[in-house]
């Protein structure tokens, strides 16, 4: 039975609290990885297609590492794998910064290492959230989570953006040297996050079969949602950096733009997570998708500095709102199906990641095809609009999924 008031910090277990604090610390790394690696490539190559190829290398490394992680969990402590995932993000940046020129071989190598980092981090994190939280606390968990990374998404781009462009040396070599300093800071933060995480005690998944090709029909709805979610991920991580560097040409402007509206969005996320209930997830999810579509629409219609600012503000709202609803929907369905089909929870996490990969690949290729057939400007302007429109289908799919999930729960009772 749902509580009439919101949940609080005391409703989390000790392990869940440590996981939240770990993710809070690591949240200071994610904006660097998401934004400034892409801007570094743009600064040193001035070629958006290289940014997308780097992103494709990342997305290719993620599902393969998810699969590898399933086997490693039988041999290695989950805490070590989770920590390694965080540390690899710094190693990937070192590889990138050590390149004398931004060539395709270096891009692919750095991208694959970053993909391995994300693969180890997210596959183990998804499982840890699943096993340390209950369905009624997950809205608040992801509210806290999105609050943390939205706030860091404000602070980190401002601090790093202005640090990069306001040093004593403003030429390209001077800025690149400051990128290397940022990389060192990333290493330090990942080590701190790893030390905090090791204060918890976490059980690994049971040593059971985790690779399946056939799933319950309701899970197919979840995979359809993952395809559509992946469409945006295939482009949205690097889109802000490419748009900002195109219209403003400065990491400082990039950092400032990221802060517009984000603090308000962070507060909304915290309140949504605390006071919303599982029954509100479809409405929250729909608001996130509509916000994303409007962001893409303003960018496509205006395609100027004003359009980019509007895009950034709406995106800072859309991404966390979607996460607050999407991930609890996914984890609740895993809770139900793992009991119904008597399978390892990790098997669903792995399968879901391959669904995301299909969407990411199609999203990234949409940009590259538009850039090849038309121009980079055409791709930056219309790829997001196409993806934002198609993603609205997720509202109908989510509604069907929740209905079928309820029917399945009633059948199990």
TrEMBL record:
GO MF annotations in UniProt: transmembrane transporter activity
InterPro entries recorded: MFS, MFS_trans_sf, Sugar_transport-like
Keyword Transmembrane helix: yes
Highest taxon of source: Bacteria
Keyword line: Membrane, Transmembrane, Transmembrane helix
Transmembrane intervals: 20-41, 53-74, 81-98, 104-122, 142-165, 177-197, 230-248, 254-273, 282-302, 308-333, 354-373, 379-398
UniProt-listed SUPFAM superfamilies: MFS general substrate transporter
Keyword Ribosomal protein on entry: no
Name of the protein in question: MFS transporter
Organism: Flagellimonas marinaquae
Highest classification ranks of the organism: Bacteria, Pseudomonadati, Bacteroidota, Flavobacteriia, Flavobacteriales
């Amino acid at each position: 039975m749902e509580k009439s008031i919101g949940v609080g910090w005391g409703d989390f277990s000790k392990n869940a609290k440590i996981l939240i604090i770990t993710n809070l610390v690591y949240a200071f790394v994610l904006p660097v990885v998401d934004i400034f690696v892409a801007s570094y490539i743009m600064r040193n190559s001035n070629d958006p297609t290289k940014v997308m190829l780097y992103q494709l290398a990342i997305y290719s490394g993620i599902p393969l590492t998810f699969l590898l992680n399933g086997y490693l969990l039988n041999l290695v402590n989950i805490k070590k794998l989770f920590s390694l995932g965080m540390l690899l993000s710094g190693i990937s940046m070192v590889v990138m910064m050590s390149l004398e020129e931004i060539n395709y071989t270096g891009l692919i190598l750095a991208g694959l290492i970053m993909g391995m980092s994300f693969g180890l981090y997210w596959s183990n994190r998804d499982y840890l959230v699943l096993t340390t939280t209950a369905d009624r606390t997950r809205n608040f968990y992801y509210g806290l989570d999105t609050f943390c990374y939205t706030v860091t998404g404000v602070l980190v781009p401002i601090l790093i953006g202005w640090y990069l462009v306001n040093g004593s040396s403003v030429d390209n070599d001077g800025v690149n040297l400051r990128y290397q300093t940022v990389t060192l800071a990333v290493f330090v933060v990942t080590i701190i996050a790893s030390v905090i995480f090791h204060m918890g005690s976490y059980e690994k998944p049971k040593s059971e079969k985790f690779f399946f090709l056939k799933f319950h029909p309701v899970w197919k709805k979840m995979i359809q949602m993952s395809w559509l979610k992946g469409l945006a991920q295939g482009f949205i991580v690097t889109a802000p950096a490419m748009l900002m560097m195109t219209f403003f040409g400065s990491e400082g402007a990039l950092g400032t733009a990221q802060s517009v509206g984000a603090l308000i969005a962070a507060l909304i996320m915290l309140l949504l997570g605390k006071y919303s209930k599982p029954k509100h997830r479809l409405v929250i999810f729909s608001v996130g998708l509509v916000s994303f579509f409007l962001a893409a629409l303003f960018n496509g219609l205006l395609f100027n500095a004003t359009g980019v600012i509007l895009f950034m503000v709406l995106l800072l709202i859309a991404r966390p709102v979607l996460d607050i609803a999407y991930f609890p929907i996914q984890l609740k369905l895993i809770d139900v199906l793992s009991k119904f089909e008597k399978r390892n929870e990790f098997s669903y996490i792995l399968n879901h990641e391959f669904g995301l990969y299909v969407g990411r690949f199609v999203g990234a290729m949409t940009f590259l095809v538009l850039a090849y057939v038309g121009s980079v400007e055409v791709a930056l302007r219309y790829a997001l609009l196409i993806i934002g429109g198609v993603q609205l289908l997720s509202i109908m799919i989510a509604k069907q999924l929740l209905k079928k999930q309820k029917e399945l729960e009633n059948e199990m009772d």
